[in-house]
Amino acid sequence: QLLGNEGVAPSAEPDAAQRSARAVLEWKTRSVQDLLQLFYLTGLSGKRTKHGACFCLSTAYEGTYLGCFYVDVTVRPQVRIRRHSVPAFIPLQQLAARHLPADLKRFLSVLSDHLNAYVGRRYQADQLQERFSSHLGGTVQRNSLCNMLAFSYNTSGRSESFPFSARLLYGDPCRSLPTEAVVSC
Predict the structure, then answer these.
(1) Location of each CATH 3.30.457 domain in the chain
(2) How far is residue 83's CA from residue 91's CA, in Å, rounded to a whole number?
(3) Measured between alpha carbons, how far is 141 from 82 in angstroms, rounded to an integer?
(4) Strand, helix or coil at 143?
(5) Which residues neighbour 141 within 8 Å (Cβ) at sequence distance 6 or greater?
(6) Mapped to the 3 state alphabet, what secondary structure does 38-80 carry?
(7) What does the pLDDT read at residue 19?
(8) CA nearest 168: which of 160, 158, 178?
(9) From edge to edge, which strands make up the β-sheet containing 80-84?
(10) Is 2 helix (H, G, I), strand (E, B) or coil?
(11) What stretch of H or E contains 1?
(12) pLDDT means per 10 residues in the chain (185 residues)?
């Protein structure tokens, strides 16, 4: 049924037709697997539900998978978000109002940018705390969106130790790199 009549050359030998049909089926299977891999690499997948569709937005930072978030969208009577697992500090309703009715693809892209930036900032703060805890004076202070990080650390010179404090601000909610850094000694 999947094959239809595509790519199957008529042949006098039944074995040749079976080999050809098998080749077409293998090609189609590889194509579907490649498409699924592409969706996986883009971090977006979805499936139909009885109300509409449920999308899974996978997040990563520099090749490290960090988790996924779900958005369940209804299509009738209008396109709207039914349920989701997006954190409350991500402006989901504003993004939905701006993009969802007209362009679902754009909505998912912008939402993915917000989520990836958030988990990237959170991951960086966790890594800072984990990898450099011996140099930090206390814990890394951060807000829930991780768009402000503050920490103190010590550097040693020849005979002295210099305490520094740093404050990183992330002005763009769709970026995982700071827009402003304030360092004091």
Answers:
(1) 36-119
(2) 15
(3) 34
(4) coil
(5) 149, 150, 151
(6) HHHHHCEEEEECCCEEEEEEEEEECCEEEEEEEEEEECCCCCE
(7) 79
(8) 178
(9) 44-48, 52-61, 64-74, 80-84
(10) coil
(11) none
(12) 46 68 79 64 81 89 90 88 94 93 88 95 93 85 93 78 88 93 90
Residue 18: its pLDDT value, please?
77
Four-way CATH pick for 36-119: 3.30.457, 2.40.30, 3.30.980, 3.30.530: 3.30.457
Distances (CA, A) of 128 to 60, 147, 173: 17, 15, 20
Of the chain, the end-to-end C-alpha distance in Å amounts to 72
Whether the pTM exceeds 0.90: the reply is no
d(CA 29, CA 160): 65
Count of CA atoms in the C-beta half-sphere (13 A) of 73: 22
Q: Cβ–Cβ contacts within 10 Å for residue 44, how many?
A: 18
Question: For residue 106, what are its two tokens?
Answer: 């754009």
CB 115 within 8 A of CB 59: yes
Map residue 181 onto helix, strand or coil. Answer: strand
The per-residue pLDDT for 78 is 84
